[in-house]
Design brief:
Layout: H1 4-18, E1 21-29, E2 34-43, E3 48-52, E4 58-61, E5 77-83, H2 92-96
Antiparallel strand pairs: 1-2, 1-5, 2-3, 3-4
Length: 112
């Protein structure tokens, strides 16, 4: 038997080793015109579980790729898997006002 701190460390290692990979099913409109997250999934060693962001759809599938079929519509809405990447998380400030054009140049307002 070990103490609480060591046991907690063992459990954290067990959870880290067995954790499923998280992914999103993203619906893409047209050719990169727009996109939305349609569902979230967890990939386990033996299967995948997917839950739509709008209530009502849950899927248990053999592979994450199988989820794409349930979220593609017609010829203009395609579904793709995007694996969660913790390094890609943006801050709230970055989300509010993306600066796609770059910084504005300094302007001088001389009155003379």
């Amino acid at each position: 038997m070990c103490g609480e701190p060591r046991f907690t460390e063992i459990l954290e290692g067990m959870v880290a080793d067995a954790a499923p990979r998280v992914f999103a099913v993203v619906q893409e409109y047209g050719d990169r015109v727009d996109a939305r997250i349609a569902a979230w999934g967890m990939a386990f060693e033996s299967h995948s579980e997917v839950v739509s962001v709008e209530r009502g759809m849950r899927m248990s599938l053999q592979t994450p790729e199988c989820a794409r079929r349930g979220f593609a519509w017609g010829s203009h809405i395609h579904a793709r898997l995007v694996w969660f990447n913790a390094d890609a998380i943006t801050s709230a400030e970055e989300d509010e006002a993306p600066d796609v054009a770059g910084p504005m140049p300094e302007q001088s307002f001389d009155e003379g």
